[in-house]
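Worked problem 6 (solution included).
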Amino acid sequence: VCGLCDVCLCGVTETYDQYCTSFSVASRMAVVAVDYRLAPEHIFPAAFDDCFAVTKAIVGDGAIATQLAINSSLVSTGGDSAGGGLTAAVALHMSRTDLPPLRSQVVIYPCARGPFFNHTWLSAYRIPNGLPPKAMFHFMSLYIGGLDNTETRTDQIEHQSPDLLPAETWKNATLRVEGDVDVELEMPPADKYPYAKSLLSDALSALLAGDLEHVPPTIVVLAGMDALHDDGLLYVRRLRASGVEVELHDYPSMVHAFTGLLPGKIRSLTGGVEDFPLAVPEALDSLLKSVDFVRRHI
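Solution. The predicted structure is:
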């Protein structure tokens, strides 16, 4: 399993060490965690390029597979949140290569719609400790590097483009999914706003692709109290409309990042080792369901 687990802005591979280790132990498979470049220092498509390059190398380079003790013909991908969106994009682009196909993918509450999120993300305001829309606007602005929402501009990042897209260009854009994709977006002049083309890239949002039929079998894990819940549902609908095998597990009472609340030992602030106090059974259940799905497709 090549684990594309992390967040595009503030994550490190150590953040997912427990999950990747637990997945490896439960599945008896190797897990490769991609330490991809993060925004805003490295804006889109840097993270995608890194994940895609690593996956192609593992699948297509026999020497690397041998070095890692991996069977390059039995590779699956997986990730959550921003990593879930990257996983979907990598699986899509891998399906367009001549390399051996991926066996499956594990997509956990993916950020799948890129910036086309305006209406459904608002429901997250009902979740005091969830993933607030203001944060998502901010993250997406930094990740793409050329988006402008007025809340972000008050704290400019030096790595952002000085030619930010006007807020009205994208904030009211909609993305409808009915088997095919219809994006309502009036694109600004590309010469004035060079990052505009990023908005319609299927490396940013796999939902924008018209050729999902060759994506590998997919398990999707969602949290009902998550701002990204509908992103995952839209992705499931697109895959099913394209004839892709999809298994959906929706945990209605869970919040964003719940899959990391696994039972186990953690190092305390005093340096000792103690039981993780916030473990929830749904986290372990989703892990075991994902492991079972991957193993059934090798």
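Discussion: DSSP finds nine helices and ten strands in the chain.
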